[in-house]
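W.,

You were right to be curious about this one. When I first looked at the sequence I had no strong expectations either way, so I just let the prediction run and decided to look at it fresh. Below is the sequence, 368 residues in total, followed by the output.
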Amino acid sequence: MRRIAISVAASTMTLSLSACGALGVTGTSSEASPTKGNDITVGVLMPEKTNTRYEEFDYPIIKAKVASLTENKGKTVYANGEADPDKQFAQMQQMIDDQVDVILLDAVDSHAIAEMVQKAKDASIPVIAYDRLAEGPIDAYVSFDNELVGEVQGRSIIEALGENADTSDKIVMMNGSPTDPNAGQFKAGARSELEGKVTIAESFDTKGWSPEVAESNMAEALEKIGKDNIAAVYSANDAMAGGIIKALEDGGVTKLPPITGQDAELSAVQRIVSGEQYMSVYKPYPQEAEAAAEMAVAKIQGKDIKFDALASDKVDSPTHKDISAQLVPVVALTKANIKSTVVADGIYKVSDICTSDFKADCESIGLK
């Protein structure tokens, strides 16, 4: 995938949801082509439920945006593959059989799904890859700059270790699923920041992004490296960070090393408040989800100028080049900017984060 530079302030940038109208593009339902008005159906396929974001944020935002763009005449149909490629195949086949107008696809297995993308193409159903870059003849892609995500994570580890960080510091890398192309990009970005500055003592690819697998792998790393010799842990996402922390605590680690994450899950935000997790990457789902909904509606209604403006970046997949894309910037989430990011953007209320167990920690960082 060709890298596209996106400006980001790693720890202080705040994104306004007014940016969801990407690039200032405008367009009303009255501009729809004669053949496709507002009575459209958008199929939405999400990959799994271990990461809570898909059910709690992405799909509800897409559904609401499609409705608002079509004067409540458009509808969405939804399915979640639950980390099972075969299940997602069947779900996508059903949407093709039902002749939905367009499909937003977040693939369980980006390589294997190419066959179904081609079937949709043959049925004249556009497919927009969402969050993960699926192979096959997709019409567009909307996601975050995934290599930048890894760079932000890796950079955060170096910042946490401070001025004395050197190659004697041993890092464990807990990467994501090998079937998710994003995981490889996260890993590449992180390594670009870590290599030459610290030692990557152990590195694991985690099947299905499973917290249980991450926990087991971390226990293995502890046995090999020793509980007092791990300077930091790169965790590609928050769910795995939870498993990693459990393994460290069960292994007798009393002072947790800096641990990264991604997705700004509520439990991870609370771990950041309490000091168990150093950071997460906040990916503003409303911006990504609303952009995807806008692209889907514009594509099927024939608003080519608006669609091209929304997807003004270009990326390459293993099977196709120069795919129209929109890549959304990310933010390093730490104790310092919880209020200006996930709270300001309406993802969580302070009361969601600062429950009784975290009240004192919240007060200590001025989160109230």
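Here's what jumped out at me. Residues 93 and 116 are 7 Å apart (CA to CA). And, maybe more interesting for your project: Confidence is low (pLDDT under 50) at residues 1-34.

Coffee later to discuss?

I.
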